[in-house]
Design brief:
Helices cover 22% and strands 26% of the residues. The mean pLDDT is 97. A hairpin with a 4-residue loop joins strand 5 and strand 6. The chain has two domains: 6-29 and 66-99 and 243-284, FAD/NAD(P)-binding domain (3-Layer(bba) Sandwich); 102-239, FAD/NAD(P)-binding domain, CATH 3.50.50.60. The chain contains six helices and 20 strands. Helix 4 (156-171) runs parallel beside helix 5. It is an alpha/beta fold.
């Protein structure tokens, strides 16, 4: 099992519960997992970042290797670790999460993310965006750019918009939130828009793809987001860039030309490599 997030750790535990005789080993470089779900509540000041941290001290008889998996030899069924050693498997489950595609949006790279945070991986980026919101004067403009499908957690940008709107309404009511969206429709749209009309009237403006919502370039120095229809200057810019399956998925040969991992939706086995299963955000069923 490679990857100790929600999918990987849950799968490891479930497999061991189903068959105590299975030798299950979890490979994960971190000592604790910083969760993205509920991290939007951190932005709104409703939850501390410490509540997002989960350890691995209750793994029980699941093996734990605190190393990073850097390569997979699917033919030999071996996983290479970052210390140069490798481990064999009968079945491999990858829970690689996502990598942000810093090459996909002109002007947006890792340095730009320190000014225009994505906060799409919990931790320092979450705190950076939270602190920017806290420091913004009342009357400021927050812009959130949402990517085209597919990406991690389709409802996520709109959950975030709702929590940011809650913070602005209660703490900085003269401020405004603009969503620049690379889509004309989004997950649970009717529910979100009904809630926005009821709870945050006039505070949130959603700009869909057909109205010029797709961000084509950013300028971190001026916090400007450029679309096909014009430019938008923000006091705070939350740029969620395009994504793909985590790097180990590319090494294992389970990611296709889209950057994601096609799987059998019943078994989660890769459609590209035998004996490798992919779970979590990187997997595309169907």
């Amino acid at each position: 099992m490679v990857g100790g997030g929600f999918a990987g750790a849950s799968c490891a535990r479930a497999l061991k519960q189903l068959d105590r005789d299975l030798a299950v080993t979890l490979i994960e470089p971190e000592t604790a997992y910083l969760a993205c779900p509920f991290s939007n509540a951190v932005l709104a000041g409703l939850r501390g970042i410490e509540a997002q941290t989960f350890g691995y001290d209750r793994l029980g008889d699941i093996g734990f290797i605190r190393k990073r998996a850097v390569a997979v030899d699917a033919e030999r069924r071996r996983v290479r670790l970052d210390d140069g050693t490798d481990i064999g498997y009968v079945r491999l489950v990858l829970a690689p999460g996502v990598d942000l595609r810093f090459d996909a949006l002109p002007g947006y790279d890792e340095a730009a993310a320190e000014i225009m945070p994505h906060a799409w991986k919990a931790g320092p980026q979450t705190l950076l965006l939270r602190d920017q919101l806290a420091a913004m004067p009342d009357g400021g403009v927050v812009i959130l750019s949402a990517p085209a499908n597919p990406f991690r957690c389709p409802p996520g940008p709109y959950e975030r918009a709702s929590l940011i709107a809650h913070y602005l309404k209660t703490s900085k009511p003269r401020s405004k939130l603009i969503i620049l969206d690379a889509k004309d429709a989004f997950s649970k749209q009717r529910l979100f828009e009904a809630a926005w009309r009821e709870l945050y009237p006039g505070l949130i403006e959603w700009v869909p793809l057909s109205s010029g919502g797709r961000v084509t370039e950013v300028d971190p120095a001026t916090r400007t987001l450029v679309t096909e229809f014009g430019s938008h200057k923000a006091d705070i810019a939350n740029v969620i860039p395009p994504q793909r399956a985590g790097r180990i998925a590319q090494s294992a040969g389970v990611a296709d030309q889209t950057g994601w991992c096609p799987i059998d939706p019943v078994t989660f086995e890769s459609r590209l490599q035998p004996a490798i299963h992919v779970v979590g955000d990187a997997a595309i069923g169907g």
